[in-house]
Amino acid sequence: MATLNVRGLNKLTKREMIDNIMKRNNFDICLLTETNVNSNCVEYWDLCTAFFSTSIDPKVKEREEKKREDKNYRSSYPENEQRLPNYRLAADFENAGVGIVVRNTCINALQEVEHINGRIMTATFTAHGGDVRLVCAYAPHRAYPTEDKEYFYDKLAEHVQQFKGRQFIGGDFNARIHHVRECEKDVCGPYILGRGLEYLNTMNERTKESRALFLGFCQMQSLRIMNSQFSKPPSKLITYIEKHTGVEFGPPYDAVRFAQIDYWLVADAYKHACTDVQSRQDIVFESDHLVLECKAEILTQANTKKKNSVPKFHKPNPQQWEKYNEHVAGLMGQSPCTLNCFQKAVLDSAKRHLETIPHEKRKPYISRSTWGKIEERNRCKHAGATTMEVRRMNREINQMAKKGQTKPFD
User: What average pLDDT does range 223-242 have in this prediction?
Assistant: First the structure.
């Protein structure tokens, strides 16, 4: 996986470059920030499918496009200004914009894409061991008002909390850490690019605010900053060229010329799923950011859930069987006997009086009590149970399943 601030993606050549980067580096997913794409849309590229999210209202976009096409509107300007106004000042210009690019070999595992706004979007995939969600995030930079920054992190926290399972959050957070205080070591490791505590104490207040909001969000959501967890040389920690330096990517790699503001975040319970994070200077792209690569062990599987599949039911006991027959007879007596009517009566009666077999339950020897234990294990796992506790429950499930193979089903 990878994340990159693309500095605008409205040029066709940039889209082609992203498609080639995905192919050459074998990336399955790439999270894009600052795309400037002003519509919630899907694009089908050569090897990938790209999803984009924006905050621009479609009605505003349509209105502004009509204005630009209207010659009378343009002629209302003074003669020396009869040209289009600065496009960045237009009401339908997306200053942010985020996107998620998925390699076509993984598209069958994609369950859902949620277009939240121009700074946050999510993609959920079916995978072995439970669903996996990717969150693309683009935080307002330090010049934005405090209210905008707080709204972004509140909205991001709201959506992070909704999903219980493996979740990878990547993007441009516009936060410079510089130094890890003792109280921040629960979310940030020692491997960062920074100018030290003395500089941190004298840093611009707005920059301090962006840092505090970012680290506060990570602590509240129990997220690890994965860039800081792996020992890397400074050349693989940098993600951005500082604007005031006017340099290109190259040595010396210090915190004066460069910055670390793009990050991958993973919940503490799933931190071992991430095996490496590093920036990639060898990947060339028209941006002052570098591609930030994240290697994770995720085995996806095709999303084969059928929305309208016929349910299966456990064998009924005598009382259930009697109620079922009575209900079918009552429904059939209310209308003429046709095949469709009979099928509907049978299914409605079964749903009402019989016990449904969960579609996840594939082995016939899994008893009701064993399945209940499996569901209890899954709930504990999502609630953050320890590895030892999960292993203990797995042993109990295996013992119950073995017994179920040698005795009548309950």
Answer: 94
User: Which residues have a Cβ under 8 Å from the Cβ of 345 and sit 6 or more positions away?
Assistant: 327, 328, 331, 332
Taking the whole predicted model, whether its pTM rises above 0.85 is answered as no
Q: Check if the beta carbon of residue 273 is closer than 8 Å to that of residue 299.
A: no
d(CA 325, CA 353): 10
Cβ atoms of residues 162 and 194 within 8 Å: no
Q: What is the pLDDT of residue 344?
A: 79
Residue-level pLDDT at 278: 96
Percentage of the chain beyond pLDDT 90 is: 54
Average pLDDT, the chain: 85
The rounded distance, in Å, linking the Cα atoms of 109 and 125 is 5
Q: pLDDT tens across 67-119, in order?
A: 877 755 555 555 544 444 555 667 778 889 999 999 999 999 999 999 999 99
**Sequence ranges of the chain with CATH classification 3.60.10.10:** 2-56+94-296
pLDDT for 84: 47
Q: Which residues contact 408 (CB under 8 A, 6 or more apart)?
A: none
What are the strands of the beta sheet with 110-115, ordered from one edge? Answer: 110-115, 120-125, 132-138, 166-172, 262-267, 223-225
Q: Tell me what pLDDT residue 179 has.
A: 95
CATH number of 2-56+94-296: 3.60.10.10
